[in-house]
Write a structure and sequence with these properties.
Layout (H helix, E strand, L loop, with lengths): L4 H33 L5 H14 L3 H9 L5 H12 L11 H29 L2 H32 L4 H19 L17 H5 L1 H12 L1 H19 L3 H9 L4 H27 L4 H12 L1 H9 L8 H31 L4 H16 L2 H12 L1 H29 L1
Helix pairs in contact: 1-2, 1-5, 1-6, 1-7, 1-12, 2-5, 2-16, 2-17, 3-5, 3-9, 3-16, 4-5, 4-7, 5-16, 6-12, 10-16, 10-17, 10-18, 12-15, 13-15, 13-18, 14-15, 14-18, 15-16, 17-18
Amino acid sequence: MKLNQVEKKTFLLLMLSAFFNGFVFGSFLIQDIIAKKALHAVDWQITILVMLWPISNLFSIWWGKILEHSKNLSKYFVLAAIVGRLSLVLMLWVHNYYQYLALLILLFSFNAFISPAQNSIFQTNIRPRNRGLLFGYFSSLITLVSIVFSFVAGKMLDINEEWFRYIFLMIGIFGCFSSLIMAQIKTKKESFEEKAFLTLKQVFIKPIQRTLEVLRTNKDFAIFQRNFFLYGIGFMIILPAIPVYLVDFLKMDYTQTFMAKGVIAQIGILFLAPVAGKIFDRKHPAFFSSLSFGGLSLYPLMLLISSFFLKSNFVNLIVYSSFLFFGIAMSAVHISWNMSSIIFAGKEDASMYQSVHVSLTGLRGIFAPFLGFLILRLFGVRAVFCVSMFMFFLSSFLSYKHYLKMKNAI
């Protein structure tokens, strides 16, 4: 793999940013457990909390529209650094669930900008043959930092759970550094028509029209998004059940829960993301996603099996195995989630395509976690695992069918 000067400089800044962003990513993995144990959040409050990330992604189509009209991304990274990241220092004065929720809303809302902006950087500064592999290394570093951070945070909170405030203080400062470093990356769009300003219609109405236009004109991208939507339902339905299952059913402490969610679940991404990225560069996104979704079905299956051995000495081992399968499969899903939009965008601006992709995450986030909560309350945790597993199987089957259709059309 040979990198030109632009790729070398871009990749260096991306990796430096990735180090600090690993702390922010770690917070996504542990924020629900902290809410349940330290702030005594009840099940419906946990459901709202896990809905924050996907629902905040609805903002992504508006970010995408702004990025389509922006030659310089730096000012938006600075805005995200200060408002979306540095605001977490206010966690020092948080004493209840609602204060905690308000700060996380800021964090997740501005995080909806990061993904499409990041895609724009990879599209403009990294050549196609290097994108998947470099993004794999980028993801691995983020994951390595999040693993170490999650492990240390778990140990700290088992000593004193009130220290979660200082943990978020660190996340806010390092997250700010990450965005400020990204602001130093210069991008040059080949087909860019600079606009002096965006009207209110262009800001609020045009993104919705543009989203529908992208899905209507690019049928393969629309089918790909449908299948990803089904996978996402399976992914999100299980989210409200996880902290309940780990804390209430298995009686895990901070170290054990963070070991499952923050360490074991991320090992696959840490070691396999570069490999998955290299494979992605050679395979079609639909085929790649089909394998990923199919492998992910082992995650709820192992959790379901573990629920029949709650009183055994090895139940935690089964649960840890489920999170290991999760991490292995998610190493591929992570690459596909972040890189596929560039393939479907072709010569168009990938930031808008990724914004459509991210915003559809927000759309399913409106109902999928709540549906998971209802299934949990009405039918129990095993039913949640079964529905999640079915959605993974379905999305895998339809993705492979889509791949065969496109392959035969060539």
